């Protein structure tokens, strides 16, 4: 069996996730009611008391990517900027996301800011989103982009990293 080449394998310099229907199963600007808080039982709830949850594997996936040394970011076109940031904090994800672009507009604008902040080309980025138009727009500028159908899980992320490596192999 060959030795692991994980330390020498091509890795994205930034992995970015959309929020709505990618990390959690709702639109933060229409399906839930901010402000959000933790209830006495420790659950995250909205202003109406409805329980808010993310996709099941997301906390484990973000923790693993962080432990593996990946730099993570989020890009969301939501108009509910404060609510999205509040949920990221309540879910305990602030420690994982070094870069956040959360505001209405295009994903290409979000990624232009990532490119400028990190001083890396689009080709060094990997992106996960549930909307085909965002995937198409970012593939056009050179970002490896993965369409997420039923929320982020370990399998989707592994497939995305594999696709990134395939696109960058000699």
Automatic annotation (TrEMBL):
GO terms for molecular function: acid phosphatase activity. Gene3D superfamilies: HAD superfamily/HAD-like (3.40.50.1000). InterPro entries: HAD-like_sf, HAD_sf, HAD_SF_ppase_IIIC, MDP-1_euk, MDP_1_eu_arc. It comes from the Eukaryota. NCBIfam families: HAD-SF-IIIC, MDP-1. This is Magnesium-dependent phosphatase 1.
